[in-house]
From TrEMBL:
<keyword id="KW-0057">Aromatic amino acid biosynthesis</keyword>
<feature type="active site" description="Proton acceptor">
    <location>
        <position position="23"/>
    </location>
</feature>
<protein>
    <recommendedName>
        <fullName>3-dehydroquinate dehydratase</fullName>
        <ecNumber>4.2.1.10</ecNumber>
    </recommendedName>
</protein>
<comment type="pathway">
    <text>Metabolic intermediate biosynthesis; chorismate biosynthesis; chorismate from D-erythrose 4-phosphate and phosphoenolpyruvate: step 3/7.</text>
</comment>
<comment type="function">
    <text>Catalyzes a trans-dehydration via an enolate intermediate.</text>
</comment>
<keyword id="KW-0028">Amino-acid biosynthesis</keyword>
<feature type="binding site">
    <location>
        <position position="80"/>
    </location>
    <ligand>
        <name>substrate</name>
    </ligand>
</feature>
<comment type="subunit">
    <text>Homododecamer.</text>
</comment>
<dbReference type="InterPro" id="IPR036441">
    <property type="entry name" value="DHquinase_II_sf"/>
</dbReference>
<dbReference type="Pfam" id="PF01220">
    <property type="entry name" value="DHquinase_II"/>
</dbReference>
<feature type="binding site">
    <location>
        <position position="111"/>
    </location>
    <ligand>
        <name>substrate</name>
    </ligand>
</feature>
<dbReference type="InterPro" id="IPR018509">
    <property type="entry name" value="DHquinase_II_CS"/>
</dbReference>
<feature type="binding site">
    <location>
        <position position="74"/>
    </location>
    <ligand>
        <name>substrate</name>
    </ligand>
</feature>
<comment type="similarity">
    <text>Belongs to the type-II 3-dehydroquinase family.</text>
</comment>
<feature type="active site" description="Proton donor">
    <location>
        <position position="100"/>
    </location>
</feature>
<keyword id="KW-0456">Lyase</keyword>
<dbReference type="InterPro" id="IPR001874">
    <property type="entry name" value="DHquinase_II"/>
</dbReference>
Length: 146
């Protein structure tokens, strides 16, 4: 069965307890379960990884080159800082969806710029944890059309 890589970056392991007024109370386990069930309904298996380390995320992206059909990523704070993460995603040339739980555009100005959005196939911002399900559905459609 075709597969998707689900990546969550720094601090997303704290989802559910971290700033619940911003990120809500759903946990990372809830995110993984939602992505797995949404993907399964569309015929994809999911490999999920959360890391607080940029290089671990980059290595995981390299490892699915030619293997996975696409990547769903919430890069956390690396969104706003990491050229290297962007280069990894463009380097493996897999379609990917960028997800943010919070509405980054309604927050501090340093969150308004993403190093990924202009090369992402799908961007979902500010829809809470359910936004991951939309990202999977839209990414699956991109993959289907390719
Ligand atoms: O860690 C995060 C989470 C986030 O990616 C989100 O899901 O809303 C938004 C980022 O600005 C922040 O650094």
């Amino acid at each position: 069965m075709p597969s998707l890589l689900l990546l969550n970056g720094p601090n997303l392991n704290l989802l559910g307890t971290r700033e619940p007024e911003v990120y809500g109370t759903d946990t990372l386990a809830d995110v993984v379960a939602l992505v797995e069930s949404t993907a399964a309904g569309l015929g994809f298996t999911v490999t999920a990884l959360q890391s607080n380390h940029e290089g671990v995320l980059i290595d995981a992206i390299h490892e699915v080159r030619g293997v996975a059909s696409g990547i769903v990523i919430n890069p956390g704070g690396l969104t706003h800082t990491s050229v290297a993460l962007r280069d990894a995603l463009t380097g493996v040339a897999l379609p990917f969806a960028e997800v943010h739980v919070s509405d980054v555009h309604a927050r501090e100005s340093f969150r308004h710029h993403s190093y990924l959005s202009d090369v992402a196939d799908v961007v979902v911002v500010g829809e809470g944890v359910p936004g991951y399900a939309r990202a999977v559905r839209e990414l699956a459609e991109v993959i289907r059309r390719a």
